[in-house]
Design a protein that fits this description.
It contains 24 helices and 12 strands. The protein has 542 residues and is α/β, with parallel strands linked by helices. A hairpin with a 2-residue loop joins strand 10 and strand 11.
């Protein structure tokens, strides 16, 4: 058995053996067959996806004496020297440690030497994004017009850090994360060659844990095979990867989606007591919530999971709502727990914040009977039984008093009675928007100028005391993010989204008197954009 590690020993030596990058292989193969070779290539993508390996295969194929259909024959002297690492025509440069202008000057001087064996001298520049700005500028002219016998291949994991002027001089190839099935296929090949006893499901666990990196998967396979004496079983993989806590993550998600906060916090405490890594538990919880979100949204076929897990999670998704999953994912996914002792606090705090946000009034209204003297009828939020008089802020007159209680009473604080929004609900809306910034101002402070908003059918009327605040609010609500935030606040605290209309109160920096605003026709005209220019008393002679 070779002393080399798996990812080096089983590194592909031809395009046929490259896994999961068919879109790259097809183009390179056709370019070689048609003799349309570029002077510079840029290979970018996540780590462990085959960038450097593809660069080496390309270099060997370009210099192969007898290529067949764009593939090296792996039998000629040049191919054998490439496989043995003895060729002088392949120069690999690590830009992370050779990133200065002096190294680039040295490269510029050497590119004019002819290749020793093949037709091309190939330079592979790994971690190309690490070149300094001065080195990158010095490299530009050579990269754009190198000698005809020189080919540059730049490899990077962070293409956004590379100068656009360098990118424009290269043919760019984006390498993708490998699908689990492609990783498992390669791992099965290695297990067969290395005489490792394994199970298909165990390799699937390794493939998913590698997150699209074949090199990581090969390293995990070798580590587990050494640890358990060439026996890679499901139990051994779960023990090595810490997947024994997957059940804890699944139970935690169940408790979150059933709003059982004490049980969720207890589950985290048990995980800490058992020595679980909070980072791993957090990652698994977020992945489960994301999977449920995709299933509930109807995109389950894009998920890279087996049928058993898909059916199990689909059952959970059917019992909950999409908004509930999204809220849990927003809070739990927004934290970054550390693995050191006591780091469970961030996860516990996220669980509590999730339960607080989920503790919202119901989103539906119950019917309500009112006196025939009332001009319009508005829906009412169900009123809880205890402390009924102190929780209601009713601005209707005595002849508009309710004759009956609303049906379907639930344990939720009332938000709207008649046409007036309760002070508690309005304060909650202002508080939730205190950090929502628009073009120039925060919405919460602006809305504090508006007291006792009221409803008019499907509209919410916001009467401002100062004209300047009203105009600023109108400008800020033109921002999509601000309008969305206000709609979410209304949905949360009022149970319904209303159209917003702005107006001025008597005493503001606009016109209008309290007597005229009391008139329903005048108030309706103002909500539609009308203005009171002048108020006069007209005497009609009989």
């Amino acid at each position: 058995m070779s002393s080399q590690v798996f990812y080096r020993k089983w590194r592909p030596t031809s395009f046929d053996n490259l896994a999961g990058q068919d879109h790259v292989v097809t183009v390179l193969r056709n370019a070689i067959k048609q003799q349309r070779i570029s002077h510079a290539y840029l290979f970018c993508g996540p780590r462990g996806t085959g960038k450097t390996t593809s660069a080496r295969v390309l270099a060997k194929t370009l210099n192969c004496l007898n290529p067949v259909n764009g593939e090296a024959d792996n039998q000629c002297d040049i191919c054998l020297s490439y496989d043995a690492g003895k060729t002088l025509d392949l120069i690999e440069m690590d830009a992370a440690s050779n990133r200065g202008i002096d190294e680039i000057r040295s490269l510029r001087e050497k590119v004019h030497f002819l290749p020793s064996q093949g037709a091309y001298k190939v330079y592979i520049v790994d971690e190309a994004h690490m070149l300094t700005e001065a080195a990158a500028n010095a490299f530009l002219k050579t990269l754009e017009e190198p000698p005809k016998h020189v080919v540059f291949i730049l490899c990077t994991t962070e293409v956004h850090k590379i100068s656009p002027t360098i990118i424009s001089r290269c043919q760019r190839f984006d390498f993708r994360r490998l699908a689990t099935k492609d990783i498992v296929s390669k791992l099965e090949f290695i297990c067969k060659k290395e005489d490792i006893q394994t199970e298909h499901k165990a390799l699937e666990f390794i493939g998913r844990a590698a997150r699209g990196s074949l090199r990581d998967a090969e390293n995990l396979l070798e580590q587990i095979s050494l640890l358990f004496n060439q026996n890679v079983s499901v139990e051994n993989v779960q023990e090595n990867l810490g997947l024994v806590h997957s059940k804890i993550a699944k139970d935690l998600v169940n408790y979150l989606l059933t709003e059982n906060t004490p049980a969720a916090l207890t589950m985290v405490g048990m995980a800490v007591h058992d020595g679980a890594d909070m980072q791993s538990l957090h990652h698994e919880t977020v992945e489960l919530l994301r999977t449920l979100l995709m299933i509930k949204s109807g995109a389950k076929y894009t998920l890279d999971i087996d049928d058993d897990n898909l059916n199990s999670l689909s059952t959970i998704a059917d019992k909950t709502s999409l908004s509930l999953i999204a809220r849990c994912l927003k809070h739990i996914g927004g934290i970054k727990p550390q693995s050191h002792q006591g780091s469970s606090l961030s996860l516990e705090l996220a669980i509590v914040e999730t339960s607080m946000e989920l503790d919202a009034p119901p989103s539906h209204y119950t019917s309500k009977k009112v006196s025939p003297n009332v001009r319009k009828e508005f829906p009412a939020i169900p009123i809880p039984k205890p402390n009924l008089p102190s929780q209601i802020e009713n601005k209707t007159s005595s002849d508009e008093t309710d004759q009956t209680e609303p049906i379907g009473i639930q344990d939720a604080a009332p938000q709207i009675v008649g046409s007036t929004i309760s002070t508690e609900a309005w304060n909650n809306i202002i508080q939730s928007l205190r950090k929502q910034r628009g073009k120039r101002f925060y919405l919460g402070p602006l809305l504090k100028d508006c007291h006792q908003p009221f409803l008019d059918e499907e509209s919410m009327i916001l009467p401002f005391n100062h004209k300047s605040n009203m105009e600023r609010t109108e400008t800020e609500l033109e921002e999509y993010s601000c309008k969305t935030a206000v709609n979410e606040a209304m949905e949360k605290y009022l149970g319904h989204v209303y159209e917003i209309k702005l107006t001025l109160r008597d005493g503001g920096n606009g016109s209008g008197s309290s007597s005229l605003l009391a008139n329903p026709m005048v108030r309706a005209a103002k909500t539609l954009g009308g203005k009171i220019i002048k108020e006069e008393n007209i005497t009609v002679n009989e």
